[in-house]
Amino acid sequence: MSKKIAILATNGYEDLELHYPRIRLNEAGYETELISLTTETIVGKHGYPTNPELSIKDANPNEYAGLILPGGSSNPDHLRRYDDVISFVQRIYSAGKLIGAICHAGWVLISAKILDGKRATSYFAIKDDMVNAGVDFVDKSVVIDGNLITSRTPDDLPDFMRAVLEFLSK
Question: How many domains does the chain have?
Answer without folding.
Answer: 1
